[in-house]
Amino acid sequence: MPPLLDALRRPLTSLRLSVTDRCNLRCAYCMPEEEYRWLDRAALLTFEELSRLVDLFLSLGVTKVRLTGGEPLVRRDLAELVAQLARKPGLTDLALTTNGLLLAAEAGALRRAGLHRLTVSLDTLEPARFERLTRRSGLDQVLAGIEAARTAGFRELKLDTVVLRGVNDDELAPLLRYAKSVGAELRFIEYMDVGGATRWRREDVVDRRELLARVAAAFGPATPLPARDAAPAERFVLPDGTTFGIIASTTAPFCRSCDRSRLTADGHWFLCLYATRGIDLRAPLRAGADDAALRALIVPAWSGRSDRGAEERLALADRGAFAPLPQLRDDPHLEMHTRGG
Ligand code: SAM
Ligand code: SF4
Ligand code: SF4
């Protein structure tokens, strides 16, 4: 069926499925606080419930699903969910974003279960810096996870690096070289003022323009490549053949072509990364709603969608953290690690 269009004629084709709000790292740009309020465990959707909701979204034109979190690999038996989803005929792209910490043990099972693509977040190659940035140890495990992903046969491997000024912005060249050495494509992500990024400051963002200048200083000029799909990354190639991407969500947002929505692990559906409220699909699901009743919640919401969160943030004269701490404590759904990056 033709995809459902929103008020700005953007199709509902991509769904980010957060399978847990828990995480085994505490990245400074995502979870900088000492304590968090977690989702109620009884509220987490079971694999059967997740699968049913995915079926519903597929029936409305979604073709791409990305599993995320929190850290998706801390959800027990994730490969079983992958296997259930991979069997769905309408799902042409099934991907996973992970911090890589538990990947070495899981890569083979995920591949066998039918996962198509894998993105690993990697912000530094220096162990001491990894510990400072994530407040946990484990860079070796992440690198072993990337190796295991290659061995398991994941070909379109991507590595995502959030660049923070004064933290890891001196590692652009080593990270690019490392990515090339493992046959992966690196994407630099601008530091975003998403919910949870309570320490965000404009001065700490290394923007697209500066990233390109710094990469060019190390490797020579970067030539733009045509976009491969509706992905938000702009792609470039360097004189030595290395390809890489930049996701300039902070200074050059791509809301105009945004086809993605997010489902939290407890079944709240968000139409935008910056939306302050989601639509609760869990309550009607557990109350026995049939597919028509659930579609009646989804269809009008998407049809009326006019969200352009990142563009609106860009227009703000005085830009700081998206949600203050008391608000995050009050509603954990505002957190990036809850709604899924
Ligand atoms: N835990 C997994 C991981 O880190 O890959 C998946 C969830 S994480 C929320 C998804 C992505 O969001 C990661 O690549 C992470 O770097 C990115 N992210 C989190 N906070 C961010 C921020 N403030 N600015 C830019 N990207 C951010
Ligand atoms: Fe880091 Fe991902 Fe965990 Fe956020 S959810 S703290 S980005 S590993
Ligand atoms: Fe899409 Fe909202 Fe992100 Fe813009 S800010 S790209 S509308 S999710």
**Residue-averaged pLDDT:** 96
Q: If classified by CATH, what would the architecture be?
A: Alpha-Beta Barrel
Strand content: 15-25%
Rg, alpha carbons: 19 Å
Q: What name is given to the CATH topology?
A: TIM Barrel
Description:
By secondary structure, the chain is an alpha/beta fold. It has a single domain, classed as TIM Barrel, CATH 3.20.20.70. About 35% of the residues lie in helices and about 15% in strands. It has 12 helices and 12 strands. A 12-stranded mixed β-sheet has the order 7-8-9-6-5-4-3-2-1-10-11-12. Helix 1 runs parallel beside helix 2 and helix 2 packs parallel to helix 3. The two termini are about 30 Å apart. The structure holds S-adenosylmethionine (SAM) and iron/sulfur cluster (2 copies).
Defining key terms:
twelve-stranded mixed beta sheet, 341 residues, TIM Barrel, binds iron/sulfur cluster, binds S-adenosylmethionine
Outline of the structure:
This protein has 341 residues and is of the alpha/beta class.
SSE blueprint:
Layout: E1 14-18, H1 47-59, E2 64-68, H2 78-86, E3 93-98, H3 103-113, E4 117-121, H4 127-134, H5 139-152, E5 157-163, H6 172-181, E6 185-190, H7 208-219, E7 223-225, E8 234-237, E9 243-247, E10 260-263, E11 268-270, E12 279-280, H8 282-286, H9 291-303, H10 309-315, H11 325-330, H12 336-339
Parallel strand pairs: 1-2, 1-10, 2-3, 3-4, 4-5, 5-6, 6-9
Antiparallel strand pairs: 7-8, 8-9, 10-11, 11-12
The structure holds S-adenosylmethionine and iron/sulfur cluster (2 copies).
One iron/sulfur cluster (SF4) is lined by residues 23, 25-27, 30-31, 69-71, 99, 121, 337.
